[in-house]
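Protocol step 4 of 6: structure prediction from sequence.
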Amino acid sequence: MIKTLRACVLASLTVLPLLTALPAHAAEMPLAEGIRALPFAAESRAGYERTKFKHWVDEDRDGCSTRAEVLIEESRTKPVVEAGCKVVSGTWFSYYDQQTITTPSALDIDHMVPLAEAWDSGASGWTAQRREAYANDLGSSRSLVAVTAKTNRSKSDQDPAEWMPPSAEAHCAYLADWVSTKFRWGLSVDMAERDALTGQAEGCGSTTIDTSAI
């Protein structure tokens, strides 16, 4: 299976096809129904170390790390990319706080479901290879997102019971991205998280999630 080619990489770089796990037509489900369908389990952080999720790698060996790939993909203008796939400028919209950013150093690449939360929710039982794939998931635009460093660090490893984006306009999209990511990777929710997701989703009308899984 072939990944969508990430755009705007330096012409001097050899660009290889990227692999994807997404089906041609992803199945959709109403957000509220998706929340109810997520597996339920208590969380445990025993044994967690961030280093158990290797990132940012150059999976396709095109010279660009996962971080660079996301910056290139999400820039709303053609990014300037220097030798070594160093992204030096572009235009990014941080949807968590509705900010437009033109300096890549002001951005973090957020794991939609943080690494620690993924560990708590089932990744503790994965192989090292699957954890690496999770931490560098370019197969879904929901998995990794460029946002202001300030909001990413405010979020840290918290779930929606503990943190939501500062912009109310972002909440429904954030919930959909969160639930879709949990579906994609077969991750569970605990009681507080499920209750928070359910309550927040009440104002999200026809918002849908992607239920494709890998």
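Step 5 (inspection) to follow. The chain has a mean pLDDT of 90.
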